[in-house]
Amino acid sequence: MLRKLLSRLLSSDHAPVARDPSPAPRDEAADRLIAEGNLAEGAGRVEEACERYREAVQAAPGYAKAHLNLGIGLEAAGAAEPAIHSYEAALAIDPLDPFAAYNLGKLLYTRGVPEEAERLLRKALESRPEFPEAQVVLSRVLESQGNLGTAAAALEAVRSKIEDYFARCLLAEFDARALAAALQDEGIRIVSGGTDSHLVLADVRPLGTEGKTAEIVLDEVQIAANKNQIPFDPNPPSAPSGIRLGTPACSTLGMDEPEMREIGSIIGEVLRAPADRGVKEKARGRVGDLMARFPLYA
Predict the structure, then answer these.
(1) 4 against 110, higher pLDDT
(2) In which element (H, E) is residue 61 found?
(3) Is residue 201's pLDDT more than 90?
(4) Which of 26, 100, 104, 115 has its CA 20 to 30 A from that of 67?
(5) Whole-angstrom Cα distance, residue 228 to residue 215?
(6) Are residues 13 and 122 in the same domain?
(7) CA distance to 96, 124, 162, 280, per residue, from 132 (Å)
(8) pLDDT tens-digit profile of 124-158?
């Protein structure tokens, strides 16, 4: 089973990309454009995402993160050569960036350049030793070069992390289904009637509100959500009808279906009375209780 999962993970269509989460120096204007691009890419609007990333590069030519995201967007659009140039630009700005090194190494491996791919993947692992995706791709590169023993050792070193990764993916999907059911119980319409992934797209209009207001109000009670358009949305993108919620962070903390029902209940209560300070204060307390039981840092 694990070998099949690894094969899927390493195929050109499914190999994960890595975006830089590090607290490097930021450029606020470029970050806003990158965030807009991430949202567009997540919604499948790859061309729009690439345009935002290009604008981020123009706004901050010396910002490695902008070049990295442009490379990821171009790769998603099937433009491999321009993606390579963007990753190279990111590494020229920050030679120690493990994410640019990993993405470039992975792409070069799929294009039949294993020696340079190996060098870049080892470079990524030097900068970030706890990088299971890079370790997995490196094992495949070594196997392609006939270094079977070294490849097996590299894969064994990360096997437990891979198993844990897929376990978390499955848990996030189960939790998303539980959250979707809880939101439906609150009177919120789930687009497509449910979810088969870690994301939930919800139409909040049945509760008398819209996505922009919902995003702001939920943020006030410490619940992260993004305003999101829904299919055939009659509202403009600036104030769409829906919100998008994800469960991986909750699943990673160890939350399960009972916590998803609690979160759904909190969301419903807040969105039914977005201007009620008492309701929001109570909701913040419920969220605080959850986070006390499942702390970010144990």
Answers:
(1) 110
(2) none
(3) yes
(4) 115
(5) 9
(6) yes
(7) 17, 11, 7, 40
(8) 988 888 787 788 788 888 888 777 776 676 666 66
Per-residue confidence (pLDDT) for residue 20, from 0 to 100: 56
- Count how many domains the chain has: 2
Indicate the pLDDT class of residue 55, thresholds 50, 70 and 90. Answer: very high
56: burial class by Cβ within 10 Å (0-12, 13-18, 19+)?
buried
Would you tell me how many other CB atoms lie within 10 Å of the CB of residue 158? 20
Same domain, 89 and 192: no
First to last CA, the chain: 32
Indicate if the pLDDT at residue 174 is higher than 60: yes
Contact by Cβ (8 Å): 36, 29: no
Separation CA 175–CA 263 (nearest Å): 11
- pLDDT at position 26: 75
Q: Tokens 């090194």 label which residue?
A: 101
The amino acid sitting at 251 is S
Phi, psi of 142 (to 5 degrees): -65, -40
Residue with token string 């919100």: 243
Q: Within a domain: residue 106?
A: yes
Rg of the chain on CA atoms, in Å: 21
